[in-house]
Request: fold
Amino acid sequence: MKMTTSFLLIVVLFVGFAQFAYAQRQIEVITGLTTMYAADPLTQSICFRDGGHGHVFESGRAVNRCSDLNFGSYSADGFSTGVEGSRKGVLIDLGDADQLKARYGYTETVGKGQGYASIIVKNAMALIAKDSRMGTLQEMAESTELFRSPEKNMSSVPVNVGHIYLLRITDPSDKTFELLAKLIVVGHVPNESVTMRWQILPNLYVTKN
Reply:
């Protein structure tokens, strides 16, 4: 009997771990560090789906593959989103790490990565750290702008080193499509190139108790 109880306990623990591992896979982090070049027909845009170039050379032509974000083509030395097909983009400059910390009051650490790292989207709300040590979050004032219905397709903002950005793309012709991402500019040569760390943000829907 004692052996049977121990065996059942092991099975329960294993099933629990398997479910936890499955849940972890469901919210896999898709991120990358990418450099975009304004003068390069291929790398001036990025596809967040796989982190690859937005354009390809095909049959002697430069062809759009998947351009979620562009550097320099639509706005001089700036980012632009909502640039392909019927898709509409919202792009928000949140400022740098010090500005975010001052605005939301959380504690930063050496390297100033807590604000960027903590940003998530849940129930169509952008959230950021409230107390980094306790792991608590607060809604960002920019949520309203992020989830508004854009009046025009394209959204553009200047590129600034150290600034953190939020991006949302929707498609009026495909109501099921939504792409959310955050990015931070880590390097910039004006009118030439920009290097950014980016991460796709799943829109987590959680039922309130």
Remarks:
- Residues 2-25 have pLDDT under 50 and may be disordered.
- Helices lie at 2-26, 97-104, 114-118, 143-146.
- The CA atoms of residues 170 and 177 lie 6 Å apart.
